Every structure is written in structure tokens, then in C-alpha cells.
């Protein structure tokens, strides 16, 4: 089955064998992960779609691809429009499309290990109104027809030492047990991969760019826990690290273990746990309480060790990025570079650091009009040259034992237009406004989001993504629960120790894209003469901005001072790591405006 048309035909034949009139295919794994292992890339295999968010619904005589605003262009490039209707979820949700298109009496299948219970309940109600039924399948029909489906990763787990974690796994178990006892719960299910890794102070290589193992956990009020992971993935060092209070069971025994929890009160996070977990506990007769995974907030609020480690990682990473920006300044105008070669060179600069373990995500290396696609992902088919008098956008990061980085810079190759300079400067003004924000305790990211957009809004333009996301500590580059956005996560107060991105942007379809991204740390601020302790941000990312794109006349005196102060800090931190032409270039790039 080398074509997507053949794969769609095979799925429909399997659906008929299984007595299904339709099937829902998400990008997801059993842990509700943002990025999934190769074995779980079912949507990509079926349709060719390479984005990180989306789903498909296949009926007997029609099919639809569901994407958000980030992928409106990409889906048309990658998914055959003769096979799939394109649906923006802002216009119509998948369950709404199902209700409108599923014939009366039809049976629509879904894999309960790949959807939340809330989704299943919503879809079931929508289908019931049109006389159709949602059916949980015991065997995923895509797995039945995907002949060369990859196996789960065999990679071993590794201990993440206390010198990086800053808190022992034993203490974390005690904290969660105290939370359980305080709430009156017997146990909680920890299903998110980064939560499992953080809780046990282990890391893995089962997901590209995210150092987590495929594993679940059940944590109990008596400070014991069960880790569900393929036993052959555990080294003697990891077993010794986990100790006698952690039982090891096979990854595939999770459902069986849940079925033994009858009579127990079990906390389950509805956002991070699939429907199958709820179903198994229901059948067992457990009392289910919907409550947030107790590791989520603790993981988001970095301790002193994690903060120090992150700063050390940023210092190394900033030098690698600065070397790349210097290289681009020299090489791009000569011609011959393209998106793939530039991304490869940036990885080489990062790899000069022996501490680098991986990239923190697949580098967004976007030349010209591709920069207008905020989540563009280059491949051999889409790769295009970096041309003169254009903008090149690079969003990248590294995974180090002591920290995870994420940074975006724009390079002006040749001479930028006045429009490019104007938009870059407006994005920079918003970036500065958010960076300088001072706010009361209890303030959410949703309340701050407008600061980064104000200069664009005043000119009648905007960007279609959030302004900031949380970042893990040698974990996921996208970490909740905090975020800075006008949608989602609006009720999460920012707290000292949280690390977030600051990444406003501007995208002109078919022409260019701009984004300036640094990471910053929420910290307490004491205001002289103030009546309460406030919060603000400490910048963590240090790499030069693109001087050719800054319209100094648009900046206020305060904004000019911010740029000069920021570049002085970049120079102080990065210059000792450079020599020769790269050092001279940095000094020029960071000279006062």
C-alpha cells in the first residue's frame, strides 16, 4: 500500500469487516502526548499529514481532515483533497461534522486509548441526536492494515540524577502521597509521559526530541507506586534507583491493574488520561474523582537546581545559536543555502557541546514565504532555497541534561523592505512590553497576552497563535499548565519558578514570517514604595536580534534602552565563548543602537 488512496481503501475494507460505518483517527498516543512515537503516527500513515495536531474521520463514502489555523496551508500541500474534505476546527468541530454526515443507524468506531472521555461523551451525544452510535473498538483497524507499522521503542531508561532534578524521587512520592491523604484518595493515575519521567527522576528516548519513556504509573497514599514499563527497558541502575517502594509491571498490564482497583477512590486527570482508563476503573467498581495530575504544577514550578541548570544550558545554547547567526550572515548572501542545509548546520553548532542530548523539537527552518507558516516543518519535498532580499526564520532548541531551550530568530538576507522592518519592530515592541511586565500574584497568562499584541493590533494586524508556553527541565519543550494566550489555560496563575516563552509574531501569507522568541522565568519583584510583592520576568535566552530589521525611529527611549541593555547582556554572556570573526560580529551586532 504505497499510496494514500490505497491505504484509505484498505481501512474502509477493514471497517466493513469490523462492522463499522466510520472511524476516527487522531494524532495521539495512549498518553495524550503532543508528540508521539513512530508506532502511533496513524494519521500521518493514513493521510500524509505531518502536523502535530489534527484528526481524520473516515466514513464509507466520504472522509474529512480536521486542522486548526496553523495548518490551513500545510494540509492542502500534504493531504489529497480528492480523498479528504478540509475542515478548520474553528468552523466545525469533528463531532459536529460527524453529527451532520454520519447516516442514521451508523456505527462510528473510536479507539478509547487515543481519546479523552470528554471527547467520547461529546461525540456520543452528538451522534445520538442524528440516530448514530459511537463504538469503542477493541482493536484499532489502522493497526490491522498498517503492514509495516513500527514497534514501540526498545530504548533503555536512564536515571536523571538529583544534581539535575533538585529533588529526589522519594521526596516526590512523599509529596504526592501527602496530597492523596489530604484529599482522601487512595491512589492516582499518572498517565502523561513527562509526568511519569519527572516523578520517578528517569528519562527515556521513546519519543523524538522529548526525553521520556513509554510508561504509566499508579501512585498510592502509602508512598508506594507501580511503574508500568517494558521490563527489558530497565537497567540495573534504574531498578536500583527506583527502589523497593516502586513495583515494576509490564507496560501492557496497565488495564489489568486498573481492573483490580474496585472499592478504591482513584484520582484521574481528565485532560491527560484517555477514556480507556476511566472505562477500566468504572468496570472495576472504583470511585473515580476527576482531579489534576498532582505532578503538573510541581513540575512547572522549577526549583533552584533546575533554574540554575536551565541558565547554564541557555548560556551554551546561546553561543551555538550566535555562531550560527554569524555563519548565516556570511554564507546566506553567497547563495546555495536552503532550509535543510541551514537546519543541519545549526544542529552541528549545537552538537559542538558534548552536553547536547538531542534537539528539543524538529527545527522550524523557514525561508521566504514558508516563514508565514508558524509551524512549518521542512522536508525533502518542501525544501526551498534561502534567497537574497528575503527573511529566514529559525525556531529551534536543544535538550541538555540541565535544561531545555527554545528560541526563534529572524535573519534578513540582503536588504529587507520597509514593511519587513516595520512588522519586525512592532513584534519587538510587543516582545519588550511583555518582558517588562510587572503584575500582581494571581495574574494569569491570558491577562498578559494583550501586551504582546498591542502594537500589531494598533496597526490592524495580529498573529494566530499563543504568545507563550511553559517549558520543561530536560523534558517537554511545551509544558503546562501555564501559558500566555488569549485562549486555553486562561485560569492558571503564573507563579515564581515557572518558565515560559515570549514569542509574538507576524505572518504575511505567501511572503514572509517574523517571530522573536526568548524564554523567561517568573520571579518576585519588590517595588520601592509598593504595598505588595509583585511578579515579573527574568530573561533567560541570550542571542543577538537582527539589527537590520529594527526601525529605531519607531522605538521609544525605553524600548531602545531595553534593546541596548539586552544586547549588553548577550555580549557579556556569549562573547567569552567566541573567538575571531564570530566575536567581532557579535560585538557589532550588539553595539548600542
UniProtKB/TrEMBL annotation:
One MF annotation (Gene Ontology) recorded for this entry: aminopeptidase activity
Peptidase M24 C-terminal domain span: 534-593
Record keywords, A-Z: Aminopeptidase, Hydrolase, Metal-binding, Protease
Domain Creatinase N-terminal: 7-139
One of the Pfam families matching this protein, by short name: Peptidase_M24_C
InterPro entries the record matches: Creatin/AminoP/Spt16_N (IPR029149), Creatinase/aminopeptidase-like (IPR036005), Creatinase_N (IPR000587), Pept_M24 (IPR000994), Pept_M24B (IPR033740), Peptidase_M24_C (IPR032416), X-Pro_aminopeptidase_P (IPR050422)
Family annotation (CDD domains): APP (cd01085)
Domain Peptidase M24: 310-524
Membership in a protein family: Belongs to the peptidase M24B family.
Protein name as catalogued: Aminopeptidase P family protein
